[in-house]
Every structure is written in C-alpha cells, then in structure tokens.
Write a structure and sequence with these properties.
By secondary structure, the protein is α+β, with helices and mostly antiparallel strands. The chain is built from 13 helices and ten strands. The chain has two domains: about 140 residues, Alpha-Beta Complex (Cathepsin B, Chain A); about 160 residues, no CATH class. A hairpin with a 4-residue loop joins strand 6 and strand 7. Helix 2 crosses helix 10, helix 10 runs antiparallel to helix 11 and helix 11 packs antiparallel against helix 12. Pfam families: BtrH_N, DUF4872.
Length: about 350
C-alpha cells in the first residue's frame, strides 16, 4: 500500500482553471512579482488570454440560453505563453488513467485533471461539468482516498478514489472527459514579462475577433464580439421569444454571469486584475487605462446579474426591462476593451524591435 501527500499551496479561487494554475505556479515558485509573492489569479487568467464570449439559444433545455465568457484554450494558452511543456493525455481505460496520475504523484508532481463536478462527493452539486479543473496532490491506497485542491473550497479536500474515478470518466455535459490528465513540465523561470504580456493580449484580441475555440464546439452560436452583439440584440427579443420561460432565461443569465465559476463577473473582473498587474509590471499607463475599462465592464456585468436575478422583482418583464440599458452598456464596453488592447499592441513595438533600434 502506498501513501503520498504532497504539501501544496491552495486558496479558494473564482475560476477552476486559473485557480488551479495559480496554485501550481506558486508550488513551482514561478512569478513576475518583484516581491516574490505568487501571481494573482487574475494575472494567471489574463496571461492565458482566456477572455471570450459564446452566446446561443437552446430552446430544448432550461435555461433556454447558454452564455460563457472564456474560450476552451485558456489552460493550454497559459502553458504556451509561460513556457510550460504540456502533454495533455486522455484515455478510455480507467486503469491506465489512474496509473498515469499515480506516476506523477509518486514523482512528487501535483497534477491537474478534469473531473465532473456532479461526481465529486465533497461538492454535493446536481449539475454536470466534465471539464472542471482540479489538482490532485496525494493519495492513500489503503484508505482509498485522494487529496484534491478545488477552487470552490478553501482547504484541500479528501475525496474517495471511487468518487474521483467516476468524476474522471464522465460522459456528461459538455463532453466526455476520458480521464483527462495535464502532464506539465515546468521551467526554472518564466519568459520575459513584456513578451508574455504581448502574446496574452494578442490572444485575447484573436479570441474576441472570433478566432478562439469556443467552450462548446459544434454548436450554432456566435463567438467573440459577434457573440456579444448577438446577445445584446437578442436580449431585447427575449419576452417574445421565450414567453412564459422568460423567468428561466433570466435566472440562467444570472448563473452564467456570477455563479458558473466566472470570478463573479463573466471573467471580466479577473481580466481587469491581470491588466492592473501588467500595467504595474511594465509601468504602462495605457494598460492601466485598459484595466479601468475592464473594471467598468465587470461592474456592468455584476449589475446586470443583480437586476435580472430571481427575487429582484416578482415580474419577469420588469426584471428584463431593468437589464436593457445595462446590456447596451456592456456591448459598448466590450468593444471599447478590445479596441484598447488593439491600440496597445499597435502602439507598443515588440521587445525585440526595441532592442534592434
């Protein structure tokens, strides 16, 4: 029988992916902070360029909409931008999946995996999400347990190996996770900060221009700024489109903005924190101004969630009307944010170009 328990730094986070990667970066002592403090969760999210938008109507389910503010490639792009070698493995063989994870833990490497939240016994939730990032940092064969760092909990969680196996082999929403295991090999230092910030901002602009991979592939929806614009125009038609299901659509909107692991504001508050950090790292007022735009955007998303949520009014039509001006402001600020990032990329030459002068 084997028992492995790796000391692992962990704090609650707003989003599973950026929270897990923040903890892993801290474990490996990698940061851009002069003080030596770990990177913020927002910095990790932003360094992946993970901002996006996907909006679609799904009338066959409740709520009859789907809205998400990140792309599918966030975790991969964090690795790419920070020089982390990634080997993403999936298998349909439960034994192979466990042996792969156990080998990493035996080697002293806490490892990120995908797990379906419905099957993680310590969460006690009803909904499925097969692509929830957690970090496994130990196991005990004899006790039949693993130790898990999850963004939704303050402390390292004890999880039965049976529960973890079910969570890693789920075929539920949004897709089968097939024992997905993120095998990462970490650098001794991060790449130059200016290069990394530029790559991350360029990725964000690409995502919002429609080039990013949506979190749900193969669906009929709009992405990036097109997704923002479709949501804004479609929202006005919700009463006629949904009728007596309007309340369900509004309740779903509230969940998608603040409750679905979004950092509380469609990921925009996380991105604003990244821009604050990047502006400080580079002593750049243009980035500080862009951060202010994303702080304003996050505040509008939170206000929209507040006015449409169940309990804000007994009348769904009143809740919907209260959201109309905020939706318009959000669309305008989403475009303004991308313009600000584009302007910085255009006005600030790459570091190599500066050195060549």
């Amino acid at each position: 029988m084997t028992r492995v328990r790796i000391p692992f730094p962990h704090r609650r986070a707003g989003h599973c992916g950026s929270g897990a990667l923040r903890d892993l970066l801290e474990f490996h002592g990698l940061t851009y902070e002069d003080s030596g403090y770990p990177l913020s969760e927002g910095a990790v999210f932003g360094l992946g360029g993970g901002i996006g938008c996907l909006y679609l109507v799904v009338p066959q389910i409740d709520p009859p909409i789907y809205l998400v503010g990140r792309t599918a490639d966030l975790e991969r792009d964090v690795c790419s931008h920070l020089g982390i070698a990634l080997d993403f493995r999936q298998t349909d063989d439960p034994q192979e999946g466990w042996e792969l994870l156990r080998a990493e833990l035996d080697a002293g490497r806490p490892t990120m995996v995908w797990a379906d939240i419905k099957h993680l016994e310590y969460l006690r939730v009803r909904m499925h999400n097969t692509m929830h990032d957690i970090v496994v940092c130990g196991y005990d064969d004899e006790a039949g347990v693993a130790w898990v760092a999850d963004n939704d909990r303050d402390e390292i969680q004890r999880c039965s190996l049976e529960s973890l196996a079910r969570a890693r082999n789920s075929r539920a929403f949004p897709a089968p996770n097939r024992h997905a295991t993120w095998l990462m090999r970490w650098p001794t230092a991060l790449p130059p900060v200016a290069d990394t910030v530029r790559a991350a901002l360029r990725r964000t602009v690409e995502n919002m221009s429609g080039a990013g991979t949506p979190l749900l592939e193969g669906v009929q929806g709009a992405v990036g700024l097109d997704g923002v614009d479709l949501f804004a125009s479609d929202y006005r038609r919700w009463p006629a489109r949904f009728g007596n299901r309007l309340a369900a659509a509004l309740d779903g909107l509230y969940v998608f903005i603040v409750k679905a692991g979004t950092g509380g504001a469609m990921f925009r508050s996380l991105y604003a924190e990244f821009l604050d950090d990047a502006a400080r790292w580079l002593s750049d007022e243009t980035l500080a101004s862009a951060a202010a735009t994303y702080h304003a955007l996050a505040e509008r998303w939170r206000r929209l969630a507040d006015v449409v949520r169940s309990g804000a009014s007994d009348d769904p039509l009143a809740r919907h009307r209260a959201g109309l001006p905020l939706v318009q402001e959000i669309a305008e600020l989403e475009h303004a944010g991308v313009r600000a990032l584009n302007q910085w990329l255009t006005a600030t030459p790459p570091v190599g170009a500066l050195r060549a002068r």
